[in-house]
Specification:
The chain is mainly α and about 500 residues long. The protein is about 70% helix and about 0% strand. The chain is globular.
Length: about 500
C-alpha cells in the first residue's frame, strides 16, 4: 500500500478524532461522549454524525484501500496539490467529470485556469447579472429561448432594451419592424439577423404568446448589457439558465427563489453535494438565514460545527460567549479566532432572536459536522437570500426524489455563470477569442475555478498534477458520489491530517 493511501487512512482516523461520532458506532472508531439535548427534532440526525465510521464501510473506502487507480491518485502530484487547498478540492469533487475531461488537454486546462484569473474580478458583478438574467428567464422561458436562437439580434435587444419595450403591447409590430430592419434605427446594425428572426415562425409565435418579455428585459437592462457584448456566450447563458429553471420548477422550486441560487451557483452546488447539510439548512433555514448575515462567523461555525453543539440547550450561552469571544477562549476556540465577527453577530438582535427561537440549529450542525465541514469553504457565499430561498422551498429540498434534478440544475446554473462571465470578460477585452471558446467548452470547470483561481493556476503550472487528474477519472467520480468522503476531502481538518500524516510517513521512511 502506498504512502499516499496510508496518509489518507491515517487522516480519516485523525479526522474521526476531530469530528468524533456523537452516537454509537460499529466499533471502528471509539465514540466520544454525546451531549444531551432534548430539543433535537425530527429534522436533525438523531444519532449524531457517524460519517467517518460510515465512510470506512462504504464502497468509496474500499476503492481508496484496494483500487490501483486511486492508490496512484492518492500518491500523485494532483492529490498533493489539492490537499494544500480544501476549496479547490471541494470544487473538483463537485465536478469530477468536468475536470477529468478538461485535464486530458493540459493546454486547455491552463487556458481555462488563466481565463479564470483574468475574469475573476468580474465575478461579483456577474453574480448580479446572473440573478437578473434568471429572473427574466424563469418568468419568460420560451420567449427568451426564442430570442436566444438568434444571438446577434438578441444581443441587440438586450443592449437597447428600453427601445424594444414598445413592442410589449404589440408583438406583431415587432415582427413587422424586424422584417424591415434596415429601416429601423434600433435594428439596422444587425438587419440580417433581425430579418432571420422575423422569418422564424416558432420564435415569432413564442413572442406573440409572451410579449411581456420585452418589458422584463427593459427592467433588467443594465444587468443584461454586460453579458450581451458577446452574443454567442450570452445566448448560451440564457439556454443554461432556462435549463436550470426547468429542472428547479419540476422539483417544486418557486421562480422567485431561483434568482438567489443563480447569484451563488458554486455555493449552491457545494451545499447540494452534502445532503445532510442541505437537509439541516432546510429544516432550520430561518436560523441559518440569520447566520448568513454574518458570513465570517458562519464559515467558522461550519468548519468547527461540532464544538457549537454545546449551545443547543442554551442559546443565551452562545450569545454571551460570542459577545466575549476575544476574552473567553475556553468557550470556543473558533470564536476567539474570529472574535470581531462573533461580537458583531452577538450584537445583532434579529439574528440572536432567530437562533433563540430555533436552538436545534446548533444540534443540527454538530450532528452533521463532517457535512458542514465539507461546505465551510463556500459558506461565505451562502448569503441570507440563498438561505431564505431554501427556507421558502424546504419541502422541495427535503424530497430525496428531487436530488438528481437539483444537482442537474446546479450544474446548469454554473454553466450559465461561466457563460455570463465569459461574455462580460470577452466584451471588456479580458479574454481573447480562443480563451472565450475554451471557457464555453468547459463551463462547469471554469465556474469552479472562478471561486479559487489562484489555486487552479498553481495546479495548471504542474503538468504532472494535471495529468494525474486526467488519469484518475474513475477514482474521482467514485469518491465524489460518496458525500461523506467528498466532505472529508473538502474539509480543512482532513487536509491538515493528510499533511501531518505525510510528515509522519516521511519521518518513518
Amino acid at each position: 500500500m502506498t504512502a499516499g493511501v496510508l496518509a489518507v487512512g491515517v487522516a480519516a482516523y485523525g479526522l474521526g478524532r476531530v469530528y468524533p461520532p456523537l452516537g454509537p458506532s460499529a466499533g471502528t472508531i471509539a465514540p466520544a461522549d454525546r451531549y444531551v439535548n432534548a430539543q433535537v427534532g425530527a429534522g436533525d440526525v438523531q444519532l449524531g454524525d457517524t460519517s467517518v465510521a460510515e465512510l470506512m464501510q462504504t464502497d468509496a473506502f474500499e476503492l481508496m484501500v484496494k483500487d490501483a487507480n486511486f492508490r496512484a491518485f492518492a500518491a500523485s502530484p494532483a492529490f498533493q496539490a489539492l490537499a494544500a487547498n480544501p476549496s479547490a478540492m471541494a470544487a473538483l469533487m463537485a465536478n469530477p467529470k468536468a475536470f477529468a475531461a478538461l485535464a486530458a488537454n493540459p493546454q486547455a486546462f491552463a487556458g481555462v485556469a488563466q481565463a479564470a484569473q483574468a475574469a475573476a474580478a468580474l465575478a461579483p458583478r456577474a453574480q448580479q447579472a446572473n440573478a437578473a438574467l434568471m429572473g427574466v428567464v424563469a418568468a419568460h422561458p420560451q420567449a427568451m429561448l426564442a430570442m436566444a436562437a438568434h444571438p446577434q439580434a438578441f444581443a441587440s435587444i438586450a443592449n437597447n432594451a428600453a427601445a424594444f419595450s414598445q413592442f410589449a403591447a404589440n408583438p406583431s409590430a415587432f415582427q413587422n419592424a424586424a422584417a424591415n430592419a434596415a429601416a429601423n434605427s434600433a435594428m439596422q446594425a444587425n438587419a440580417a439577423a433581425f430579418q432571420k428572426m422575423a422569418a422564424d415562425a416558432t420564435a415569432m409565435n413564442a413572442l406573440r404568446a409572451d410579449p411581456g418579455v420585452f418589458n422584463a428585459m427593459s427592467a433588467s437592462a443594465k444587468a443584461l448589457q454586460a453579458a450581451a457584448g458577446q452574443p454567442q456566450a450570452f445566448a448560451a447563458a440564457v439556454q443554461s439558465a432556462a435549463n436550470a429553471a426547468q429542472q428547479m420548477r419540476q422539483a417544486g422550486i418557486a421562480n422567485n427563489a431561483m434568482q438567489a441560487f443563480a447569484a451563488n451557483p458554486h455555493a449552491f452546488a457545494a451545499l447540494l453535494s452534502q445532503p445532510r447539510a442541505m437537509n439541516a439548512v432546510a429544516s432550520h433555514a430561518k436560523a441559518f438565514a440569520a447566520l448568513a448575515a454574518h458570513p465570517q462567523a458562519m464559515a467558522a461555525m461550519f468548519a468547527n460545527a461540532q464544538s457549537f453543539g454545546q449551545f443547543a440547550g442554551n442559546p443565551n450561552a452562545f450569545q454571551n460567549a460570542a459577545a466575549n469571544a476575544a476574552a473567553n477562549s475556553a468557550a470556543n476556540a473558533a470564536m476567539k479566532a474570529n472574535a470581531a465577527a462573533f461580537s458583531k453577530l452577538a450584537a445583532d438582535a434579529a439574528a440572536m432572536n432567530a437562533l433563540k427561537a430555533d436552538p436545534r440549529a446548533f444540534a443540527s450542525m454538530a450532528n452533521n459536522a463532517v457535512a458542514f465541514g465539507g461546505v465551510a469553504a463556500n459558506a461565505q457565499a451562502m448569503n441570507a437570500a440563498m438561505m431564505s430561498a431554501i427556507s421558502s422551498n424546504a419541502a422541495a429540498f427535503a424530497n430525496a426524489a428531487n436530488a438528481a434534478q437539483l444537482a442537474s440544475a446546479a450544474r446548469a446554473l454554473q454553466a450559465a455563470q461561466a457563460q455570463s462571465v465569459a461574455a462580460s470578460a470577452a466584451a471588456s477585452g479580458r479574454l481573447n477569442a480562443a480563451a472565450a471558446q475554451a471557457v464555453l467548452a468547459n463551463p462547469q470547470a471554469f465556474s469552479a475555478m472562478l471561486a479559487n483561481p489562484q489555486a487552479f493556476a498553481a495546479m495548471a503550472s504542474r503538468p504532472q498534477a494535471v495529468a494525474a487528474l486526467a488519469a484518475n477519472q474513475r477514482a474521482m467520480a467514485a469518491l465524489a458520489a460518496q458525500p461523506n468522503f467528498a466532505a472529508l476531502l473538502a474539509n480543512p481538518a482532513m487536509h491538515a491530517a493528510i499533511r501531518q500524516a505525510g510528515v509522519a510517513q516521511g519521518a518513518a521512511s
